[in-house]
Amino acid sequence: MKLYRHLIAAALFALSGAASAAGFTDIKQINAGDLNVGYVDQGPANGPVVILLHGWPYDINSYVDVAPLLTKAGYRVIIPHLRGYGSTRFLNASTPRNGEPAALAADIVALMDALNIEKATLAGYDWGARTADIIAALWPQRVTGLVSVSGYLIGSQEAGKQPLPPAAELQWWYQFYFATERGRAGYQKNHRDFAKLIWKLASPQWHFDDATYALSAASLENPDHAAITISNYRWRLGLEPGEARYQELEDNLAKTPNISVPTITMEGDANGAPHPEPASYAKRFTGKYQHQQINGGIGHNLPQEAPKAFADAVIAVGRL
Fold first, then answer.
1. 32 forms bridges with which residues in the sheet?
2. Continuous segment of H or E residues that includes residue 5
3. Most C-beta atoms within 10 A of its C-beta, which of 147, 226, 318, 320?
4. What DSSP element (H or E) covers 289?
């Protein structure tokens, strides 16, 4: 009965307009850890696996033009909806709608286990890059290579207590908004308009059309999306606790562990979202490493704005 309900959820998501000729239409569902995960699985079943992870407030369609480039190169491409997005659902109504970083990373490890994937290249941006970084740091035996937009994004609640220069604090305006009950209610009510504003601010030179935005915005209609978003940003400021079962992982992440797997970091020349300078994190990558600056007005959603550059980096990291 539970599986039947999840299949219905996936079908309704597809009919909602999230899947169209311009987006992914082949969403699969699988139970993994706390979730029934909606995901794309394309390319040869026996090909090297790459898992592509999206950010906030975007979705799997960030990779709609990346995936065919990678499948053509022989890769098996897995693209999951993170918790709180698309057709991904919690299996238990009582599970905390927790957005802390360790929880998202554990979700992807559980997905790999459910799909019998021992190792994969991980690639992502925003929340997806942070998730990939965490897995590469804590489970390096599961990672063939890493492609991370904006580099090393592992943080902790302790680090979140440290004040930033005023200009940097200004970039995080939405984090402080979410810390209030007004912000929680505002995001719940206005998440589509809010997300569209974030897209524009984060990628000021990316002139996406309404259809492109609507394709991804449908994923934000997940019933847990607002709760996961608010949890994540409140956790960062120490305003909301995480779950005890992830505390050991968070303690290890608070030590800012190095990443030893082969890595390519990337940055767009027009990223309007908060992001560190490449020189500040290069030393965190102790294995084979390259950094790529992508020019041409490329903003925060790098894989959707520069899909060939992103796909080329995924292929190149396997050759480092």
1. 35
2. helix 2-13
3. 147
4. strand 289-294
Find out whether 89 and 35 touch, Cβ atoms under 8 Å.
yes
- Report in angstroms the alpha-carbon separations of 99 from 27, 49, 312: 23, 26, 31
Q: Are 303 and 66 in contact (CB under 8 A)?
A: yes
Assign residue 232 a region (left: φ > 0; alpha: ψ between -120 and 50; beta: otherwise).
Answer: alpha
Which long-range contacts (C-beta less than 8 Å, at least 24 apart) are formed by 111-116?
Answer: 111/30, 111/32, 111/33, 111/37, 111/39, 111/51, 111/78, 111/80, 112/51, 112/142, 113/32, 114/30, 114/31, 114/32, 114/33, 114/37, 115/30, 115/32, 115/41, 115/78
**90-127 pLDDT tens trace:** 999 999 999 999 999 999 999 999 999 999 999 999 99
Name the 3-class secondary structure at 34.
coil
- Give the dihedral sign, CA 55/57/60/65: negative
Q: How far apart are CA 139 and CA 206, in angstroms?
A: 35
| Alpha carbon distance 36, 32 (integer Å) | 6
CB of 314 closer than 8 Å to CB of 147: yes
Residue 199 has pLDDT above 70, yes or no: yes
Whether pTM > 0.85 for this model: the answer is yes
CB 64 within 8 A of CB 134: no
Query: What is the percent of the chain with per-residue pLDDT over 90, rounded to a whole number?
Result: 91
